[in-house]
Every structure is written in structure tokens, then in C-alpha cells.
Amino acid sequence: MSAADPLRLGLSDEDLQRFASGINSLVADYLATIGERPVFPPVTADSVAERLGRELPRAPEPVDRLLADCEAVLDTNRHNGHPRFFGYVASPASPVGVYADLLASALNANVTSWRSAPSATLIERTVVHWLGDLVGFPTADGLLSSGGSIANLTAVHVAARRALGPDAGRRGLAAGGAGLAMYVSAEAHHSLVKAADVLGLGTDQVRQVPVDERCRMDVAALRTVMAADAAAGLRTFLVAATAGTTGTGAVDPIAAVADAAEEQGCWLHVDGAYGGPAAAVDELRPLFTGLDRADSMTLDPHKWLYTPLDCGALLLRDPTAAPRALAESSEAAYIRTTGYQDDEAFAFWDHGIELSRRFRALKLWLLMRAHGSTAIAASIAEDCRLARAMAAAVDADPDLELMAPVTLSVCCFRVAPQQWRGDDATLDALNAQIMTAVQREGTAYLSGASVAGRTVLRACIVNFRTTEPDIEVTLEAVRRAAREVTRAAGSPPRRTP
Fold first, then answer.
1. Residue 53: pLDDT band by 50, 70, 90 thresholds?
2. 238 DSSP assignment
3. Taking residues 457-483, what's their average pLDDT?
4. Taking CA 63 as the corner, what is the angle to CA 60 and CA 65, rounded to the nearest 5 degrees?
5. What is the DSSP code string of 386-439?
6. 3-state secondary structure 4-62
7. Which pLDDT band holds residue 176 (cuts at 50, 70, 90)?
8. What's the pLDDT score for residue 338?
9. Which of 249, 306, 339, 467 could lock onto 94 through a cystine, CB 3.0 to 4.6 A?
10. What is the pLDDT at residue 496?
11. What is the domain partition of the chain in residue ranges?
12. What confidence tier does 272 reach under pLDDT thresholds 50, 70, 90?
């Protein structure tokens, strides 16, 4: 048994085995007991710092201490995989994906190109096509990313370069893009507006189109603003339809948006970072009619395909679109793939922004193989059924009020006792307090959202561990918090007739 060499940053064989065995036990126990833990542990910033420490270690620490502090990390963090974590769009990591990420980290491949990572490159290109098959997008190419923000940024960049022509890279989008305009729903993810800002197009070139009563893009309003821009000499270069808004889960009428985009000759992007996987569910597929007409699509497997962070994806219909857009910035001599042809000459730097890229695809590849698309779609369908069950329970409670239609797996509601009805400002303040109280209690975790200008409680169900009793427990936690908050608030003010 060899001892560790302090100059080589290694562990002895014995310590490595102890550490590996200890980590494996911690992970297995965590996955088995996650539902028994408080969703949000009773910690403060000071208590976490006191337990984990902040001082830079000068000497090696023993394996037992490292394992103890790893356990402390599990005890002091919020648990996104908990069956009653409904706060954000964050699905739990499937056990297969968890261990796949360990293998990917051990390999530590830099997935820049086939030359650098042959099997990793093949697997990533394979899962990109699998994602297209899963949701009905005619994928010709694409790549994985850290998440939807980078995927959306890349899509906007490719579309703008397409509109401005081959000289755009030399002149810069800020210089050539002053006459461009792009269109998103008022409920679209902020990363699309941020993309325009980062690219130098200017946020005032992003038109945020009003939504209808179902929180979907109003296509008549879209046509009106596009026509006005065209008449003013602006180039309408991109329309982004949202397939599952993060606020309410609304799905824009993609086919009608596609018609408007086609009339103006502009790029159609579908941001399906959250809701896109629901297109794999037979009964939900009609919501996504027109998806096959899109030029690009964003998906986040770490949002609703039960894949560990980070794992986003950009799907592209035209395999030459990204390389054309990025050609002028992909010419560094040291990364050229001379001597390679066909698939062996493939390089991800020609298709996206990153050069250094981790092996994100392994966890998704193994997850999809371990479970199959039918079971994955069934789990997504069950999440949606549970959201409808929550909405039905809200409707049955006279002190709760459903605030938006349940389209996918998001349920937005508020506490609205009869004596407070009509006083929206007070209800907004009360529901904000109720949300914080529920989060702090630790039984369940909801986030807040704004629907038609009102503060609401939002439950996003993207969890294969969630059951109907979890919905009941969550609503009871809301009722407990509501009793405490309204008791502290006192009686509503007397209204003058």
C-alpha cells in the first residue's frame, strides 16, 4: 500500500478507499432519506459558516474530517430533490445521473472537439438528437450548455448574425444591429432580454409583447408591433415563443407565432427550457403544435428531465447556422483540426460560445438509457396531474384562490380569506409573508410570482418523488402560515361605502 506523496496532491491507497467509500455511503444515504429532511434546514448564515469554517487550511486535513464536513454540507443546504420542493424549476437529480456525474468528473474530459474527447463528443451529439426526437423538434445539430441562459444567448447571436450577413463579426453586432428588433412575450424569461444586452443590441430593441388572459403571447399584438417596426425600417430578425413560462407554465401559440415570423422572414426560436419536455407527453403534444417549424429551441434537461445540474441544450434545425455565425471567432491556430475529416473534424467551438466544456452528456445519456423515453414522459405527465390536483384542492378551499390556469406543472394561487377580498394590496403583502413563513418552516418550499400584477404563491412540480399526499401536506403548511400571518395582521380595515 503506497503512501501519499505530498508533492503530488494524492491520497494514499488506504485513504482513497476510505474517502471513496465514505462519499458513496453519504450519497446513497442522502438519496434514500431526502424526503425525511426539512426542505429548508433551520440554519442561518452564521451557523453555516461556524459549522463549515472559512479559514484557508495550511496543512492536510484527515479524511474523517473531510467526510464529516461533507455530511455537514448535506445537512445545511436546501434540498432541491425533496418531494415538497416546489420553489423553482429544478427537478431532482436521478440516482443514475448522480453517479454518472462522478464518472464524468473522474474522466475530466474537456469536450471541445472529437479530437479531444472522442466518446464524449459522440455521446453529446447523440443525446442532442435524442432530445429532438423526444419533443418533436427536427434537430439537425446543436450542443449542450450550462443552461437555458447560454442556449438563448447563442440562439439570439446566431439569428442576429444571419440577419446582418457575413461581415457582422468584423463590424460587431452593436455597430450593425442598430436597425434590428426582436420579439418576446411579456412573460418570457429574462435571459432573452439579457442576451440582447450582452450582444450589444440594446434592450430597447427587444419588444415585450403583451399576453392574453391565459398568460400566452398575444399574436394579434405581435403582428401589430412587427408591422409597425417594419414600416419604420427596422429588421425583425427574431421572434421567441415560450414553451412553458417559468411564472405560470403558459405555452405560447407556437404555430400562430411561426406564421407571423414566416411572414416577416425572421428566425423563430422556441424557449422550452422548462416546458419543452412536456411535448413528449401524448395528451400535451397539441400545446406544442408548430414546434417543428422553429429554427432553434432551448431545452434544460436539469429543469424537467431529472438530470443533475448543469445541463442545458440548444437544438438547431440548420447544422450550418452556428458555424457560419461563429466562423470569424473560431480561427485560433492552436485549436485547428488539421489532419481530421468528417466526424473526426467536428469541434464544438464552431457551434457555441464555450471552449472549455465539461462532459455534461454522460449523465443524460445514461439516464435516458436506464429509464427510456416512455417512463420519462410518464413521469412528466404525473407532475402535470399533480399540479391539476393542487389546483382542484385550491378551488375547493374558500380561503384560497387560483390565480392562473394550470397548463403544465405550475400552480399559482394565493391565500385570500373572504374578509380580505377586494383589498389586493393587503393580500399582496400577506402572501409575501406567507411565502417566507412556509419556506422557513421547512415542511415545503414555494416561491413567489406575479400574475396580472398580483403577488401569488407558486408551486412548480417537476419531481419524480412527489405524490398526492405531498400536495396535501404543502397546502396545510400554507394554511398554518396563513393563520399566523393573518392573526398578526389583525382585522381588515373597515371599508367606507
1. confident
2. E
3. 97
4. 85
5. HHHHHHHHHHT-TTEEE-S--SSSEEEEEE--GGGTT-HHHHHHHHHHHHHHHH
6. CCCCCCCCCHHHHHHHHHHHHHHHHHHHHHHHHCCCCCCCCHHHHHHHHCCCCCCCCCC
7. low
8. 58
9. 306
10. 40
11. 109-358, 368-489
12. very high
Q: In terms of C-beta density within 10 A (0-12 exposed, 13-18 middle, 19 or more buried), how is residue 483 classed? A: middle
pLDDT digits (tens, 9 = 90+) for 260-269: 999 999 999 9
Query: How far apart, in Å, are the Cα atoms of 392 and each of 191, 385, 412, 454, 467?
Result: 32, 11, 12, 21, 15
Residues 6+ apart with CB under 8 A from 61: none
**What pLDDT is recorded for position 334?**
47
**Residues paired with 401 in a beta bridge:** 414
Which residues partner with 411 through β-bridges? 459
Domain 109-358 bears CATH identifier 3.40.640.10: yes
Q: Which own/partner pairs from 324-333 qualify as long-range (CB within 8 Å, at least 24 positions apart)?
A: 324/161, 324/162, 324/166, 325/157, 325/158, 325/161, 325/162, 325/169, 326/350, 326/351, 326/352, 327/169, 328/169, 328/170, 329/169
Joined together, the cell numbers standing for residue 417 give 380569506
Mean pLDDT of the 282-291 span: 97
**In degrees rounded to 5, what are phi and psi of residue 379?**
-65, -40
Q: How far apart are CA 453 and CA 215, in angstroms?
A: 12
Q: Grid cell 474530459 — which residue? A: 109
Residues 82-136: tens digit of each pLDDT: 999 999 888 999 999 999 999 999 999 999 999 999 999 999 999 999 999 999 9
For the record, the C-alpha cell of 441 comes out as: 418552516
Q: Give how far the C-alpha of residue 382 lies from the chain's centroid of Cα atoms, to the nearest Å.
A: 19
DSSP string across 133-193: HHHT---SEEEEESSHHHHHHHHHHHHHHHHH-TTHHHH-HHHHGGGEEEEEETTS-HHHH
Say if CB 161 and CB 324 are below 8 A apart. Answer: yes
Phi, psi values for residue 179, rounded to 5°: -95, 15
pLDDT of residue 344: 85
Topology given in CATH for the domain delimited by 368-489: Aspartate Aminotransferase, domain 1 (3.90.1150)
Mean pLDDT for the stretch of residues 388-398: 97
41 or 280: which leads in pLDDT = 280
What's residue 4's pLDDT? 53
Contact assessment for residue 364 and residue 307, using Cβ atoms and an 8 Å cutoff: yes
Cell of 48: 453555516
Q: Are 70 and 25 in contact (CB under 8 A)?
A: no
Q: Using 50, 70 and 90 to split pLDDT, how confident is the model at 494?
A: very low
pTM: 0.92
CA distances from 489 to 292, 324, 402, 422, 483 (A): 52, 60, 22, 16, 10
Report the SS3 class of residue 235.
strand
- Quick check: 282 and 374 in contact, CB under 8 A? no
